[in-house]
Amino acid sequence: MTADAPPRTTPTRPAGTAAPRRSPATWLARRAGRGLVQVFLAIVGLLWLTPAFGLFIASLRSEEDNAATGWWTALTGSGSLSFESYSGLLEDSGMVDAFWNTVLISVPATATVVVVAALAGYAFAWLEFPGRDWIFLVVVGMLVVPVQVGLLPVAKMFGALGLFGTIPGVILFHVAYGLPFAIFLLRNYFAEIPREMLEAARMDGGGEWRIFARLVLPLGRPAIASLAIFQFLWVWNDMLVALIFADSTSQPLTVALQSQMRQFGSNIGVLAPGAFLSLIVPVAVFFAFQRHFVQGVMAGSVK
Predict the structure, then answer these.
(1) pLDDT tens string 192-242
(2) pLDDT confidence of 1, banded at 50, 70, 90?
(3) According to a count of CB atoms within 10 Å of the terminal CB, is the N or C end of the chain lower?
(4) Structural domains of the chain, with CATH
């Protein structure tokens, strides 16, 4: 017969004693350190925003003022600021068509990659089928294939199929090269979902489509939003693929602005507002999905 072990007791502070106070020097050091970090981050943020702010100011100045002095002189009150350059940009049918071509390329390319990658990621993570692991290895291996390798072969194939110089051709190229990373990202994220949760849904009579739509997609929203932002930014800012596969009727805004660079001095009134318009759209998309983007980036970092 053994005696029961005495219960453990947690140390308590003696009655009538207060918690040790921090010295003023310790409090001041912590506040100063936190303040220095905030000042440093503010300086870095200002440095990153300076080119965008300068581009915006240059887009509001006249071509004569931009040719004579730098944009920073507008802060001293020299010269006038107006939105006439934006009015002229909207009256330029070529730039307006290029902007809508960019939208027609970016939105379908992003939506197609997200939908196909979500379905494939769920299949690779939770469905059993022959050759699943080998196929996934092939998908991962495609991540190391650079875009430049496929430009000429795909251009030849698109020429034979009648897709060269068209918007669908540019979309298909972006989808093909965006899927490997997208599938890899979503498969790894979906694999972190507890198996017990999926088994409970199956025991309740839920089919694979219902589980995917009602359970997996809501849980994978942060990763899907992060993927959508990455894909949209890549396609919106792309110039190499569009420069090769698009013609004058299907060129996006990046190619249209690049063509204006041949006469930079005389086309600054088109380049500045066009470049700022090309900049502000992805920034607005990022801030719209910022909360989900941060969650997707931080997912899996803490166990």
Answers:
(1) 888 888 888 888 887 888 888 888 888 888 889 889 988 999 999 998 899
(2) very low
(3) N
(4) 92-298 (1.10.3720.10)
- Distance, in Å, from the CA atom of 145 to the CA atom of 211, rounded to the nearest integer, reads 34
Answer whether 245's CB lies under 8 Å from 298's CB.
no
Concatenating the DSSP letter of every residue in 5-53 gives PPPP----PPTT-PPPPPPHHHHHHHHHHHHHHHHHHHHHHHHHHHHHH
Does residue 264 contact residue 271 with C-beta atoms inside 8 Å?
A: yes
Q: How far apart are CA 88 and CA 206, in angstroms?
A: 57
31-51 pLDDT, tens per residue? 666 777 788 888 888 888 888
| Residues 179, 116 contacting (CB under 8 angstroms) | yes
Contact 89, 278 (CB under 8 A): no
Residue written as token pair 């921090």 = 22
CA distances from 6 to 3, 9 (A): 9, 9
Q: Could you give the 3-state DSSP secondary structure of residue 246?
A: strand
Do residues 260 and 271 lie in contact, with contact meaning Cβ atoms separated by under 8 Å?
A: yes
Look up residue 193 and give its two tokens.
């979902």
pTM higher than the cut 0.70: yes
| Bridge partner list, 246 | 165
Residue with token string 């979309």: 171
Asked whether the beta carbons of 215 and 190 are under 8 A apart, the reply is: no
For the beta carbon of residue 121, count every other beta carbon within 10 angstroms. 27
Q: How many CB atoms lie within 10 A of CB 179?
A: 18
The two structure tokens encoding residue 43: 């300086």
Angle at CA 24, nearest 5°, toward 22 and 26? Answer: 65
CA 248 to chain centroid, in Å, comes to 27
Q: How far apart are CA 287 and CA 284, in angstroms?
A: 5
